[in-house]
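Holo prediction — fructose -6-phosphate.
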Amino acid sequence: VFENSTDASKAVAQEIAALIQEKQKENKPCILGLATGSSPKGLYAELVRLHKEEGLSFKNVISFNLDEYYPMEPNSINSYVRFMKELLFDHVDILPENYHVPDGLLTKEQIADYCHDYEAKIEALGGIDLQILGIGGNGHIGFNESGSLQNSKTRLVALDHITRVAASKDFFGLSNTPRTAITLGVKKIMEAKQVILLAWGEGKANIVKKSVEDEVTNRVPASFLQEHNNAVFVLDKEASSKLT
Ligand code: F6R
C-alpha cells in the first residue's frame, strides 16, 4: 500500500526496469504482459521517463497485451493498440515486431485460431515473466468477467453490463460501446511467473477487499490470484481502505 498512485507506479516501474536489466545481462528476452485502462497510465509514463532520462532500453522486451475490444480498428481512438502506442510503445525503443495486442479486426471465423496462436507464441517464449493487471469493478482481470473459469483460455467474450457502463464514457454512450472483446484467458495470467495488480481510488476498495480477503470464486476472477505464488496487489491508500 502506497500513499498515492504516483509513488506506487514509480515503485512498480523500478521493479520492471530491474527485471528488464536482469534479463539483458543474461542475454534473454523479458516477456511482459501489459494492461490498458486508467490504472497503468502512471506506470507507463514512468517507464517512458526511465527510457528517456535514464537510458532504460526495451530492446529485449517482448510484450503481450491482455485484451482488445472486438470489433475494433487499430487506429480508432478507443483501440488498445492506439492506447499502447501513445502511452508507451512510440516513446521507447521496443521493436514493433515485439509487441502484441489482440487483433480487433479478425473475422469471427479467424478468432479461435488467432487466440490459440497468441497463447502458443507466449508458450514458445517460456511464458510471461511479469503480468501487469488492473481490476474491474466486478473483479474482472483482463476481460475475464464474473463466471470466467480458472483454466479459461484466450477467447472472445461478452462484456458485462458494468464493464460496458465503465467504458461508455470513452465511447460517447452505451449504445456505441462494444459488446465483446478478445481477452487473454485466466490460465495464461495464472501461469505468469509474477503478477502485479494495480488499483487506485476508493471506487476499487470493495472489490479489492473481496478479491484479497473473501473466498476464491469465479464470481470474482481477481480472487484466483490468492492461489498464485507470486502475485501482489499494489494499492493507494483509498483502494486499500476496506482491507481489515
Ligand atoms: C485492460 C483490462 C481491464 C482493466 C480494468 C480496470 O487491459 O484488462 O481489466 O484493467 O477494467 O480498468 P481501469 O484501470 O480503467 O480502472
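READOUT: The chain has a mean pLDDT of 98.
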